[in-house]
Amino acid sequence: MFKFNHHSLHQQLFALAIPMILSNITVPLLGLVDTAVIGHLDHAYYLGGSSVGAMVITFVVWLCGFLRMSTTGLAAQAYGANEHCQSFSILARGLLVAGGIGAMVIILQTYYLDLAMSLAGGSEQVQFYARQYSDIRIWGLPAGLANLVILGWLLGNHQAKSVMWILIVTNLVNLGLDLAFVWGLGWQVKGVALATLIAEYTGLFLGLLFIWKKYQSQLLKYRSDVWLALLDKVALKSYFKMNRDIVIRTLCLQICFMFMTFQGARLGDNVVAANAILMNFLLLISFGLDGIANAAEALVGQAKGAKNSNKIKMIVNISLFWTFIFSLGYTAVFYIGGEFFIRNISTIPSVINFANQHLVWVIILPLIACWCYLYDGIYIGLMQFTIMRNSMLISTFACFFPAWFLLKSWGNHGLWAAFSIFMLVRGITLARHFNKNKERMILNEESGK
After folding, report:
1. pLDDT higher for 371 or 52?
2. Pairwise CA distance, residues 319 & 162, whole Å
3. How far, in Å, are 2, 173, 212, 360 from residue 170 at the CA level?
């Protein structure tokens, strides 16, 4: 039994969690600003088109979430073991892979966007603005993917405040350009896309600048060893093999999110527009709860690198408590202010009415989904990606799609009910596995397995 009143661990958790929560929520808050800017235009198809287009680009970014997850886990363990050269090699390898993937998608953009638009469905107007948005945003993918690596590496090295400031400045740039391009210049959907594109490259510049300023002497000291490690074919093969499970896991998650967006588009312009508002609320919740999960993964990874199994168990217990407290707070916020938020995001009565009818799902989702967010962070810190993959496969194909099929007569309510079941099962499967196997997972590195 481990004491809960371990004050120093609470302080360590919050020293990482608070900056991560503040920085994380700037991402969905900006999405809400984008939605509000577009939502105040005359027609629902502007919002529907931008949300479909954003999902098409976000699909690639989130599918490459392994760049952030594996980088954080590996960097945290290298940080705990004081392996500085290994840490810089992890950063360089991640940036190389991010640039390669971004360039490949740009080269193949015509084929990818044609396929995505054919799968998305929706009205002719939604299709037009979704393609207009995607054609601009796709050029930001190299920066967006590199940012995943940079932010993951900084978090793994316990530089949460730096992550916070990079994201805040980046999103303020995005916000300012949103208002200038859409309301000032009247560029509508393409203005939102261009603002995000510029902000992504701003974030990349800030991240690289910070790393250079803080780690310049160490980077110069280890540069030859880093280049040798970067060109090591065995290391690259191991890197991709390890990330295979994260890609499968993330692909399943993105299939569910894209199905929510695309199925909403098939139900009508008002439905996809209302769902865009509610999904931004959900992202606000998930990114906020991810602050605790991000802190947990950095602390768990450090403790694993230092081979401190008792500390890992205490971190998990403390993180579970605070995740539940924060989820209660989010539920209360949307129960009290959800309708107010919706009215301030859109001025289209049919969209407001439809979003209010489905607000209940956003109110209950923090309590349902908080556990899967936290356990994701714990498993990333432990580098146990196969378990995350298996949990996601079960949740997607044995729960989400069967539940939607059984409940599709409920229309959009059935879609949200299936998604809630999906999130619940993710948490249950990960929690059950952790409680049964935590000793083996924590100690396997110490025993040389």
Report:
1. 371
2. 22
3. 41, 5, 18, 32
CA distance 179 to 194: 12
The C-alpha atoms of residue 262 and residue 267 are separated, in whole angstroms, by: 9
- Three-class DSSP category at 6: coil
Give the total residue count for the chain. Answer: 449
Which amino acid is present at 41?
L
pLDDT of 2 over the 50 cut: no
- The C-alpha atoms of residue 298 and residue 382 are separated, in whole angstroms, by 10
Q: Where are the domains of the chain?
A: 25-443
pLDDT at 4: 52
pLDDT at position 449? 37
% pLDDT > 70, the chain: 86
Specify burial of residue 179 (Cβ count, 10 A radius: 0-12, 13-18, 19+).
middle
- Our measurement of the distance from residue 329's CA atom to the centroid of its chain's CA atoms, rounded to an integer in Å, reads 20
In the chain the first and final C-alpha atoms are separated, in Å, by: 26
Question: Please, are residues 52 and 122 in contact by the beta-carbon 8 Å criterion?
Answer: yes
- How many angstroms from the chain centroid is the CA of residue 348? 29
What is the per-residue pLDDT across 317-339, written as a single tens digit (0 to 9) for each?
A: 888 999 999 999 999 999 999 88
Tell me the CB-side half-sphere exposure of residue 5, using CA atoms within 13 A.
Answer: 0
Distance between alpha carbon 411 and the CA centroid of its chain, in Å? 27
Q: With contact defined as beta carbons under 8 Å apart, do 190 and 53 qualify?
A: no
Q: How far is CA 101 from CA 232, 314, 360, in A?
A: 19, 38, 39
Mean pLDDT over all residues of the chain?
Answer: 81
pTM, full prediction: 0.72
Q: What is the pLDDT of residues 171-183, one digit of tens each?
A: 888 888 878 887 7
- pLDDT classification of 432: cutoffs 50, 70, 90: very high
Treating both helix axes as pointing N-terminal to C-terminal, what angle do 269-305 and 309-345 enclose, rounded to 10 degrees?
Answer: 160
Output the pLDDT for position 205.
92
Beta-carbon contacts of 108 under 8 Å, excluding residues fewer than 6 positions away, are none
* Angle in degrees, CA 178, 98, 101, rounded to 5: 95
Q: What is the pLDDT at residue 133?
A: 83
CA-CA distance, 116 to 77, in Å (whole number)? Answer: 38
Residues 6+ apart with CB under 8 A from 143: 102, 200, 201, 203, 204
Q: How many CA atoms lie within 13 A of 239 on its CB side?
A: 26
